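Propose amino acids for all 716 sites.
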């Protein structure tokens, strides 16, 4: 499936025209935020599998087709799927064989001792099945399809090709989707909204066809697929689950959906006279009574049957509009409208839509999966190393409260992370990589060996402290910071022969193409270890506690980045970093060591600039990922190369394309990729507000770009 690109016709201009405006912060000039946001409202005029739209509140999201509901999910199954997903909706298939995670362990030698890692196995069969079970379970649920039941006057179903004059808009300022279309020259108008706090979607419909019994609301409950990446809807297994009505009143009905040992509830409320019918197992239709031309409906999902207050469409709409107005009026804003370069308009579109998508998909109490609450990837599990890309931008855009919401997760899984470290023979806590709400490990030949997620909680805690530098903040996160630092210091091994500390092996760095059995001292991980331990040491000082000598020994003993021919290598163990194409067809993480992070260990800026220029020239950019382009732009910004920052941030490759709905398209398997959206926001914050120690105005933009911004924070 090929994405629809919105600015490919503009890219050729980049190399052929000069930048045409002046770069300035223009302090004292307020941005017209209403105009900024509303000029990027999304317009849809057809059924397009990659153009679905979503409403959400950060912990629940509802994605719709061109009718404004989930009427034709089959069209979008292999595109941007029509998900109804929450943070709490998880399920595990029955474990009839009593598989245990420990069965997937394989020991790796670390200086003569055996360290177990949970890996995937090809044989023997028992280990293979145990590893597969632990990867698949738990998986995230699609809570239910809420769509239109559309009929012709002869009661035959309306097909999507019979729907005409589609006119759909997502109003970003209100968080409201309005949809209009014709059926046999009869107009249907729909509004779709999400409650800002509840897992509730509100719907209002106006049409003459309602009174002819041609329009109803369908609610369908699927069985999960357990697949790696899909819409999570198995419609071929009705016997494996039950959907029943547990309470019914004149204007509301409560359903209980039971899937093996998992159960949850859905409450459907409506205004006016209507009748609920069971069309087939797991398939219910609400049919309005004769004479109606309007219908208001709300559907709320919960883990328990304790629906106390009724929130109808009107109330949900009122609260949603208030929430979104507050969201757009506070925090950061960037206005590119005074820049004549055509790329500026596209960049502004991406920035505004990314703020919307991150708010509805990535502002909950759990780290989000890479495809958010739209459809499942990696079985719906989330990747802790990606949490940085999803969440760091909140603080830089002065919305640190939305960052802190998800940090309680680290406290929740603290004991499990402590046990993991102990099993492997380390102090402190070892955070998982691919995981779930319980912090369970997922067997993997790659993910289990990554370490760059370990310092993230220190980074996040420092962001929170910078926003609120009080003893309360220090005490809130101190245990997490210190236990994380204990693991990091213990993980680093002392190399007596060279009187230094080393990281790995076994280790797979963020540049995942390197071999775990060989990798030693990858530059980004070395830099992050140095930065994280130094910050932890500073937290001790702030709390009037003595410095930790073990941490300091590692800080002082970490080596400079390995180099060859005045280029920094992907790892000390990879002298052929720029000769082996396999290595330069992955994340260019050398740039992260002076892009994501400031200078840490002893680093030669001239060599880093040589490395940057070489990577820009020879890298296989088509094989990289959505967050690599903002990372490279951040490195260019630190190196004083604003023209290259823009070039890389808007690089014309498939994985850096942004669909009409704002999603970062990667491949036919990964049609959306929210780390790209979050990374874009962090990069733009740096390009505007700079970084600590920077004295230049708008350091990431060429001098002819007139970029106006407000309320952003410099990056560390």
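Proposal:
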């Amino acid at each position: 499936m090929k994405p629809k690109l919105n600015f490919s016709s503009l890219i050729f201009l980049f190399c052929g025209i000069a930048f045409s405006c002046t770069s300035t912060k223009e302090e004292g000039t307020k941005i017209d935020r209403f105009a900024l946001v509303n000029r990027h409202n999304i317009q849809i005029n057809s059924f397009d599998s990659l153009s679905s739209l979503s409403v959400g509140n950060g912990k629940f999201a509802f994605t719709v087709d061109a009718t404004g509901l989930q009427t034709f999910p089959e069209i979008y199954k292999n595109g941007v799927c029509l998900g109804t997903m929450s943070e709490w909706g998880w399920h595990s298939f029955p474990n009839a064989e009593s598989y245990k995670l420990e069965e997937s362990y394989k020991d790796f030698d670390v200086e003569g001792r055996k360290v177990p890692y949970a890996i995937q196995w090809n044989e023997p069969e028992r280990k293979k099945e145990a590893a597969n079970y632990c990867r698949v379970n738990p998986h995230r649920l699609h809570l239910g399809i809420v769509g239109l039941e559309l009929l012709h006057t002869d009661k035959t179903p309306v097909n999507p090709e019979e729907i005409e004059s589609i006119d759909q808009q997502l109003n970003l300022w209100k968080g409201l989707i309005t949809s209009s279309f014709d059926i046999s020259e009869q107009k249907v108008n729909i509004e779709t909204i999400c409650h800002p706090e509840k897992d509730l979607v509100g719907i209002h419909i106006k049409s003459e066809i309602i009174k002819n019994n041609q329009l109803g609301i369908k609610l369908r409950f699927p069985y999960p697929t357990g697949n790696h990446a899909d819409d999570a809807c198995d419609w071929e297994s009705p016997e494996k689950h039950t959907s029943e009505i547990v309470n019914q009143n004149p204007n509301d009905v409560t359903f209980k959906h039971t899937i093996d040992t998992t159960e949850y509830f859905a409450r459907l409320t409506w205004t006016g006279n209507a009748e609920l019918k069971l069309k087939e197992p797991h398939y219910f239709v609400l049919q309005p009574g004769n004479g109606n031309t309007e219908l208001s409906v709300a559907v709320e999902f919960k883990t328990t049957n304790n629906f106390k207050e009724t929130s109808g469409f009107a109330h949900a709409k009122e609260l949603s509009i208030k929430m979104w107005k507050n969201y757009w009026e506070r925090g950061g804003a960037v206005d590119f409208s005074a820049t004549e370069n055509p790329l500026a308009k596209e960049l502004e579109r991406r920035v505004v839509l990314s703020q919307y998508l991150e708010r509805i998909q990535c502002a909950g109490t759990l780290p989000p999966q890479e495809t958010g609450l739209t459809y499942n990837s990696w079985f719906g599990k989330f990747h802790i190393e990606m949490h940085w890309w999803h969440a760091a931008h909140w603080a830089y855009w002065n919305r640190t409260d939305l960052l802190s919401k998800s940090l309680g997760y680290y406290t929740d899984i603290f004991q499990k992370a402590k046990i993991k470290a102990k099993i492997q023979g380390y102090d402190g806590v070892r955070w998982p990589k691919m995981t779930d709400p319980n912090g369970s490990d997922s067997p993997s030949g790659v993910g289990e060996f990554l370490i760059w997620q370990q310092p993230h909680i220190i980074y996040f805690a420092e962001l929170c402290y910078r926003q609120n530098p009080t003893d309360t903040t220090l005490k809130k996160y101190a245990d997490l910071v210190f236990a994380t630092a204990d693991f990091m210091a213990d993980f680093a091994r002392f190399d007596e022969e060279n009187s230094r500390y080393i990281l790995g092996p076994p280790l797979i760095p963020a540049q995942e193409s390197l071999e775990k059995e060989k990798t030693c001292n990858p530059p980004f991980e070395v830099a992050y270890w140095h930065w994280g331990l130094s910050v932890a040491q500073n937290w001790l000082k702030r709390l009037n506690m003595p410095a930790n000598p073990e941490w300091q020994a590692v800080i002082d003993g970490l080596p400079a980045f390995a180099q060859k021919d005045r280029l920094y290598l992907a790892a000390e163990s990879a002298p052929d970093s720029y000769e082996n194409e396999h290595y330069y067809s992955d994340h260019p993480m050398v740039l992260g060591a002076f892009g994501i992070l400031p200078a840490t260990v002893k680093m030669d800026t001239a060599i880093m600039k040589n490395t940057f220029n070489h990577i820009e020239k020879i890298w296989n950019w088509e094989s990289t990922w959505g967050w690599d382009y903002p990372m490279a732009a951040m490195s260019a910004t630190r190196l004083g190369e604003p023209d290259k920052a823009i070039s890389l941030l808007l690089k014309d490759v498939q994985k850096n394309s942004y669909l009409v709905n704002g999603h970062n398209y990667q491949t036919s398997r990964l049609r959306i990729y929210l780390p790209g959206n979050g990374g874009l926001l962090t990069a733009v914050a740096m390009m505007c507000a700079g970084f600590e120690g920077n004295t230049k105005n708008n350091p990431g933009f060429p001098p002819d770009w007139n970029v106006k911004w407000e309320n952003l924070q410099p990056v560390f």
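DSSP finds 18 helices and 32 strands in the chain. The first strand starts at residue 42 and ends at 44.
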